[in-house]
Amino acid sequence: MSSIEYEIVEHIGVLSENSKGWRREVNLISWNGRAPKYDIRDWSPGNEKMGKGITLTEEEFKKIAELAK
């Protein structure tokens, strides 16, 4: 199985944190050297492990912000 490379380009914020220290974060992430996308997922302390999440284009991210108003 091939590994997934990622770089957290910008940490935007934390949505929540559970009792084990995992935090649901919003970040701008470059996956496998591609252009960065907005990403919402759970991260272990120190961002060493990640859970399942959702990745959004800038247009999709803006649309969610509009819908939330």
From TrEMBL:
Record InterPro entries: PC4-like (IPR017154), PC4_C (IPR003173)
All copies of domain Transcriptional coactivator p15 (PC4) C-terminal, residue ranges: 20-66
UniProt GO BP: regulation of DNA-templated transcription
A Pfam family: PC4
Molecular function via GO: DNA binding
Protein name: Transcriptional coactivator p15 (PC4) C-terminal domain-containing protein
Organism phylogeny: Bacteria, Bacillati, Bacillota, Bacilli, Bacillales
